[in-house]
Amino acid sequence: MRRVEHIMGFPISLLIEDEGTTAEAAEPAFDWLRQVDARFSPFRADSEVSRLDRGELAPHELSPDLAEVLDLCEEYRVATGGAFDVRLPGRGLDPCAMVKGWAVQRAADLLTERGARRLCLNAGGDVAVTGGPWRVGVRHPERADRLCAVLEVGEGAVATSARYERGDHILDGRTGRPATGLLSLTVVAASLTEADATATAAFAMGVEGVEWAASREGCEVFAVSADGKVHRTPGLPVAATA
Question: What would you give as a GO molecular function for this chain, any one (predicted)?
């Protein structure tokens, strides 16, 4: 069963390779993602995030979901010494860097709770998989038609932060300026919550972020620095060549 929808500003595609699975089986997961977009988008004036940013909600009035996301944001802000920060001066509250991976992982969990055994959920190039092995390509940061690595993942997630899709959209919270030092950084982790947030946070840190991401429990890293050097951890699950 295959299904694709454009939610949260990017395509989300689902592949379930379980015999007899119908499109209706995916509806709870996609409904959840649509809810997240409506509730957490800083670009919607009526979203919970926007209302909080305008001071219309007190901390005790937040939904448990938003409270969880903000707690995760604070965890990463502290862990990176402020490089990952969703509250930059002069900009509104924008937790999108945390929400994406967290929401998509929750969607994948909804599917497995309902019996999906072999699935790949791809959100704008970041993937959560189960029932593998699955092969996941890592795009070359300077050549859109090439891969610089192919990974093999059975259970878990892969996320990449880079400049090639949206330019200098990742800011270093310590300076308020676009992050420098890396062309791309990919993280393999047990969940897309961890993989996506770690990739974004490490990219914001620059070259020092490679070692920081690699030091996080359960994370494997593949990165290309601005000088073209490749950095990868020993446990990176590189697919065997045919």
Answer: transferase activity
